[in-house]
Amino acid sequence: MFDFYKKHSINARLGRKGAVQSITLQNGGRKHLFVGFDSVMDIGLRSPTNIFGQPTDQLLFDLDAALSQWDNQSTSSPVTKIAFGHFPISFSALTTSGRSIRDVFLKHSLSAYLCGHLHTNFGRNLKRHHTSEKHRFSSKQYFQFDIREGMSTAVINDNCSARTESATEFWEWEMGDWRSARSMRILAIDSGHVSYADMDFIFGSRDVIIVPTFPLDSRFMQRSSDPFDFICQATSAAHIGTVRALVFSRYKIEYVTAKVYELHSGSFHLVLEQEMENTSGKGAMYTVAWNWRDFSDESPDRYWLQIEAVDMSGEVYLSERRPFSVNGLTAKFSWTWKEFTVMGCQWNQLYFPIMWTTLAFLFSLVLVPRTSLTFYENQFMLKLLKPKMTRRSSGGFSAVNFEFFGVELSKMYIIWSGMLLYLLYLVFFPWFTGYAVMEDHNKMYLHYKGWSTKYLANTSSMPYIGLPDVMVIVLPHLLFVVLPAFLIIAAIAAERALYLGHNIYQRAKKDGDHYKETCYTEYLCIFYWIRKILILLCLPIVWKHWKHCRSIMRAYEVNPFIDAPIYCFGVPALLWLAIYRSSSLGVYHI
């Protein structure tokens, strides 16, 4: 009943009820197909476990049908296909059969997929090029390290007859939002070539907006098939012989100029300046003829285009300077680490590998020392270990054997048992219960596999929903709370083992040498500060965990004492026990 869009939106008034809608515009013998789709989960989960698109097999079937509607037509008019959706590919889950939206887009070789969700929160270059080239490495399903997946190459010796079947591909362009960033995008389709310009209106409106439409930006708009389109179709495609731009203005435009710069040694040098003409007299399109072969070069970013417009008041407006390549080559451009994290990582594929790798390390941290301790006990090694250390330490303060402090954690039996039980709880039991759905008054259980639907009314036969959305709770808890807490506990155990192994107080008491007694006192101070540092390191872990628990309490109306006692208090309790057990050695009484 809270889905107001179903009742009051424009689509509702027009009777559009499906999750896929399309419209086709035709101009100049070319069709332009626009397809929009909704991949939001049918069951509306509360934030934050609703960050992934959840396409179904039926949605992909409908999307494929919408994109194919002109493929079997008898007319040979070319079709430019553009898709719209909320979620980027990196935040779109697979269907139950293992298919993805990306597969459908590659099948149709879209010109562009425009999406939102992330907007400009993580950077301005949230763009990604997808291709189905078969020779790419297998880690492609998990990572894409550069904005462009695969680089285009020039046509060798203009040998157009040697052209092979081009790889299917599409561009993914994240869009800024109007609500917070006051960002708007103008998308232009010029003879099948799709380009765009983004404008920010944070500081108010703009009097003039300039959108260059040809040549294309070689960083973000060039396609792998463009080298053949430029070179091999130059004689039949007259549009390559002109520079074109759209100029929208509140006032009358006096003249528009196309400027081409050459980038040399880090500096731009003007090499072409020509006035453009308004082709329609009243429209926004400006063109100018140029000898494009003069700018043929093996470098994709040697030449840069900028459009200058002057209005009736003499005010000068400039477009963003962008590189181009008439050879159809693509300029390399890399993400920042934040942009790579959200666009280059396929999180629906990475969730389980990261989670199970972390859990495997944590289980090994707990079980391997215990196994070692059992082995040494069976071989009577512990009886020999202590005299050996005494002999090695008789001449000075030497290092303790690794085996000794490696098993010290497992000898702290209560803490060791608590760590093992906590890990088993995370794997086999629900983490907490809460109201995950707005309209349902039954609480749901959260597991690492998703929210359990056992007590959810009117749901499907799926046992869990919200996968991989629950990773926003699972991974931060494992990586930033459990893992560092267990490492701190292991470090406290190691420090305890070193302290006991050297037996500082007994050695200083038996040895009358004042110099050695002074050395032992210095080492005692070192242990004191090490332990203090370890205790201080517990504070940010507890603070991080408290913030997680507080956000979950607010999001899902969780009572920490009833709905999530182990999740909320398990890690702090283990840290407190480790500190208490270690402090019982009396080191603080120096």
Automatic annotation (TrEMBL):
<keyword id="KW-1133">Transmembrane helix</keyword>
<feature type="domain" description="TMEM62 Ig-like">
    <location>
        <begin position="205"/>
        <end position="329"/>
    </location>
</feature>
<keyword id="KW-0812">Transmembrane</keyword>
<protein>
    <recommendedName>
        <fullName>Calcineurin-like phosphoesterase domain-containing protein</fullName>
    </recommendedName>
</protein>
<dbReference type="InterPro" id="IPR056230">
    <property type="entry name" value="TMEM62_C"/>
</dbReference>
<feature type="domain" description="TMEM62 C-terminal">
    <location>
        <begin position="353"/>
        <end position="565"/>
    </location>
</feature>
<feature type="transmembrane region" description="Helical">
    <location>
        <begin position="413"/>
        <end position="437"/>
    </location>
</feature>
<keyword id="KW-0472">Membrane</keyword>
<dbReference type="InterPro" id="IPR056229">
    <property type="entry name" value="Ig_TMM62"/>
</dbReference>
<feature type="transmembrane region" description="Helical">
    <location>
        <begin position="526"/>
        <end position="543"/>
    </location>
</feature>
<feature type="transmembrane region" description="Helical">
    <location>
        <begin position="350"/>
        <end position="368"/>
    </location>
</feature>
<feature type="transmembrane region" description="Helical">
    <location>
        <begin position="470"/>
        <end position="494"/>
    </location>
</feature>
<dbReference type="Pfam" id="PF24394">
    <property type="entry name" value="TMEM62_C"/>
</dbReference>
<dbReference type="InterPro" id="IPR029052">
    <property type="entry name" value="Metallo-depent_PP-like"/>
</dbReference>
<feature type="transmembrane region" description="Helical">
    <location>
        <begin position="564"/>
        <end position="580"/>
    </location>
</feature>
<dbReference type="Pfam" id="PF24384">
    <property type="entry name" value="Ig_TMM62"/>
</dbReference>
